[in-house]
Amino acid sequence: MSLEPSATESRAGGILRIDLGAIVANWRLLKGKLANGADCAAVVKADAYGLGMAEVAPALHKAGCRVFFVALAEEALALRALLPDTEIHVFSGATADSLPDLARQRIVPVLNSLEQIAAATAFARTSGTALAADIHVDTGMNRLGLEARELAALAGDPGRLAGLDLRLVMSHLACADEPGHPLSARQLAAFHAARAQIPALAGATPSFANSAGIFLGPDYHFALARPGAALYGLKPQNSAPNPMAQVVRLQGKILQVRDVDTPMTVGYGAAHRVTGKARIATVGVGYADGYRQSLTNRGHAYLGDMRVPVVGRVSMDLIALDVSQAPAAAAVPGALVDLLGPQHDADALAAEAQTIGYEILTGLGRRFHRVYVPAKESQPA
Ligand SMILES: *Cc1c(COP(=O)(O)O)cnc(C)c1O
User: Fold this and answer.
1) Ligand 1 contact via 314 beta carbon (within 6 Å)
2) Quick check: 1 pLDDT over 90?
3) Total structural domains in the chain?
């Protein structure tokens, strides 16, 4: 292996390192927390939360993960091309238009409404074979899933499910990242009640917990958990330390360093005023790369162990860091600063940007030189 940077690496304004071994370790940690032999799936929607489904999904499959979730039919079809023999579920379900492709590719739609159920049963009738499908029960998220009146309609007319080979019955928690939130217990009770209300659902595999739900304890585990965020190193609970391995390191490259010693301003809008002697490093990462504009005068990076603040406005391709306190030899053109890394993870940057870690990861741009650290070969879990 050469220690010289590759051409694309030396031309890029930033280097994004994604540790597939850490993702696999996180999946194993979550699976190990599950009670009663529950299985652990992986949610790889939105290009595996911005980290690259084409690399992430095969690494998890190799480690023993056999059940994957995506949000959209297009994502499911792309995943099927990567993993010909694994179980794939699609949260947004199916329409009459997408059902033939999904069925041909053995992709299981999550049915979220009576309309989706009607389209699926009609498709099963015309195709003459049972259609594998999941049922999503809304227990308090009020986003997707069957509402109480739709459950009552199903309970009163089980024939509405004719032709479906029911696989999962699932629901989704709204406040699992706040342990003790009363809505979680209400959702749990509603999930049990829905399964009891509709006998056809009794044989389906129950799935309830996302990343945070796993940390609410065994009552929330059921047969299949569906973590996404925690696989990618985001913290599953707001108030507790993060037990997940760090997955992402984003380094920005210093393009120029300038000394300023008269009162002047930095960047667009003159949003930062330098009063004394200061050294400013310009780094080749900006909002077009997902380094959000709300980090203007708020974000921090690390030059080695030194925390350095973003000064002035984040521009499309550039940010400026005040490196006045850093050793002169460290802040030089070509040096790398950690924008995301062990000292400052996606949750920490998100707090500075007034958003959530999920949005930082899914917003990571396409211009970085991406490096995937492979998972070590080991026995499947
Ligand atoms: C995105 C999603 C998940 C994963 O949630 P995380 O908080 O990322 O673990 C699970 N279930 C559903 C229905 C989802 O939409």
Assistant:
1) no
2) no
3) 2
